[in-house]
Amino acid sequence: MAGPFNARQKAILSQIRQEGRVLVEDLAAAFGTTPQTIRRDLRLLEETGEVMRFHGGASLLPGTEYTSFEIRRTIQAEAKERIGRAVAARIPDNTMLMINGGTTTAAFARALATRTGLRIITDNLEIANDLRSIGNFDIMVPGGTVRRSDGTVTGVAALEFLRGFRADIAVIGAAAVDSDGALLDFDLAEAAVARAMMDCAKHVILAVDSTKFDRSAPVVVGWLRQVNTLVTDRCRSERIRALCEAQDVELVESDPVPA
């Protein structure tokens, strides 16, 4: 239930609802206050049943609806479009794809307009509709429970459907990539679907923008070592770069590196 929040706390809650999670250090810098003050704000939001705290930040409660898909598409929109085009450039014609729900993976889906002969399974109705309008693809969507805010399909039926296929490539996103290589999310059911896609594909591409690195979230989707290719706008995390090299993960950056 809503509480008697001040302006800063209302802004923090709005950001959590929009992005799914926030970090204490980022909020302290954004609001020009101390981490201790932000922690008190998050504690109040948690006590009133609005959010769930984790070490270093807070997230939506499990099962809480994200802000609408269209609003989340505007966050890092240009970077996501560049990432999407970079991923699409790596997809051959006549390929079977799995694409999990997310705004970066949606940008990738829209960049597939010039491809032919694709068979695509996606767990997201928004992405399926985009694909329907841009190309002559065979598109499949699993059955299951549809999340109202963004059209993502989850549940046992979706998992069983996915396990009946062997895709050439799975393109997945993540809410966070921790410094130890953990791929993380905030929703247990959605993470299970992404995990199934990784298990059912010969090649896994992780598409995430640079704000996701060295971040945390409560649910483990998988590990960087399970990914074949990481596509991002710019990887400024030396730890993630080192893990890619050590674990033979191809790192592709869509943004040119300044000379």
UniProtKB/TrEMBL annotation:
GO MF annotation terms: DNA binding; DNA-binding transcription factor activity
Q: Does the keyword Ribosomal protein apply?
A: no
Record InterPro entries: Carb_Metab_HTH_regulators, DeoR-like_C, DeoR_HTH, NagB/RpiA_transferase-like, Tscrpt_reg_HTH_DeoR_CS, WH-like_DNA-bd_sf, WH_DNA-bd_sf
**Pfam family of the protein (one):** HTH_DeoR
Every copy of the HTH deoR-type domain together lies at 5-60
Origin superkingdom: Bacteria
Ordered alphabetically, the record's keywords are: DNA-binding, Repressor, Transcription, Transcription regulation
Record-linked PANTHER family: GLYCEROL-3-PHOSPHATE REGULON REPRESSOR, HTH-TYPE TRANSCRIPTIONAL REGULATOR SRLR-RELATED
Q: What is this protein called?
A: DeoR family transcriptional regulator
